[in-house]
Amino acid sequence: MDSTVTTGTEENVWGGGNQPLGASYGKLMMWFFLVSDALTFSGFLAAYGFSRFKFIETWPIADEVFTHVPFFHGNYPMYYVAFMTFILIMSSVTMVLAVDAGHKLQKTKVIWYMFLTIIGGAIFVGSQAWEWATFIKGDFGALETKGGRVLQFVSADSGERLALRDFAETLQEERVDHEKKNGIWYYQGDALPSYSLNEVVAGVKSDPNVLIRTELVNEDGHKTVLTRDETLKKLNDATLVVEGANLVRNEYGSRLFADFFFFITGFHGFHVFSGVIINVIIFFNVILGTYERRGHYEMVEKVGLYWHFVDLVWVFVFTFFYLV
Amino acid sequence: MAHEHKLEIFRGLLKFKSNTQKIWGVLTFLTLVTIVEVALGILKPASLTHSYFLGMKVLNWIFIILTLVKAYYIAWDFMHLRDEKSSLRRAIVWTPIFLVAYLIFILLFEADYIYNVYKDGFVKWNF
């Protein structure tokens, strides 16, 4: 508002220099950006909803995909994401407190609250990276069929998921990595999974306790488990061993699930990351006393808006990826 | 800049003494809502997963409504929309709501149609 030069000073609507929305130029532009960014995220989430409704019966169950907590072994669905959500809300709170302190021109308080906000953001981005790494690495491994559907394995007596290493046989066979030096031009083969298709198939055939679990969700919200006969028949369709997830293959089920996961949480993570960078810049400006000299801390309020927006988007991502 | 803060939430049911106090109050509320969401997500009560409303599980409706409640309090109290002029607030809120509602409506209907084509049509995809 201070940088705008106005010549007409009459107190009427068309005279210029007045603020019909009661907000400064910078704040309005921040809101303008946030609304357009909200539409971008909505587009992504709506596209996710589209793909999900299209494959409503075979979509992966989030509780079975995100089950890990750092430093703990075992099956803990949701807890870690809930923790991440809380961290982000908490850093939103320290941000509002910084804005509030800014209104009262309390420099030291603003510095401390900004500092805590940055720490919260860093913890969140770190958690996100860990979540990605776990997702990419995978848990149990699966087979992919000719049609691109995923077959997972469960134990017949306990109903627990089985990892490929639990039953795959070790066969004496040549498994050669296709490398650049012996390929045509610079073409390189995909990295080999821990077990070959033959080893997994042989393992299933020799162990009567292994059953195939398909992607189909039944009425109780669980994935369908095939009988032993169906399992052996279904094995003929398998073409690939899949471990972990990337943009092309995904051991958890529908490939689109992994694509949207990487895309949406990645785009959100990028927002958090740039939010942290912007917060750091403003943090140093506060320390240097830039806003003290300017006489107001509106800049803190503007980055605050961006930071809360990131939190707001996460609330939706959390719901649609992990809860619903 | 809006220096005066409106210190009431829940339509005046709860009135705080200072802005700082209101921030902590809203945090408590948001945390409670998140805890409820996570608890429901882990327990998945059968009564809520087996009943449907407009083709979607009641549990999912609860999640979405609680999300909108959280979004409301983040925007209203953390982003101080409560303290802005109503014209600014309406411009910010209703524009995306209108566009997003339209987008969701059109995409989900189309997706459901494709689902039916895959299910009943002569398209083989599960092989």
Q: How would you characterize the overall build of this protein?
A:
The complex is a heterodimer of chains A (324) and B (127). In chain A, 54% of the residues lie in helices and 8% in strands. Chain A is built from 10 helices and 5 strands. Chain A has helices at 25-54, 62-65, 79-103, 107-137, 164-167, 197-206, 228-234, 255-288, 290-294, 298-323; strands at 142-145, 150-155, 210-217, 223-225, 238-242. In chain A, strand 1 (142-145) and strand 2 form a beta hairpin. In chain B, 67% of the residues lie in helices and 6% in strands. Chain B starts with 7 loop residues before the first strand and ends in a 7-residue tail after the last helix. Chain B folds into 2 domains: 1-84; 85-127. Chain B is mainly α. The chains are: A alpha+beta (324), B mainly alpha (127). Chains A and B meet through helix 1, helix 3 and helix 10 of A and helix 1, helix 3 and helix 4 of B.
Summed up, what is this model?
The complex is a heterodimer of chains A (324) and B (127). With 324 residues, chain A is α+β, with helices and mostly antiparallel strands. In chain A, 54% of the residues lie in helices and 8% in strands.
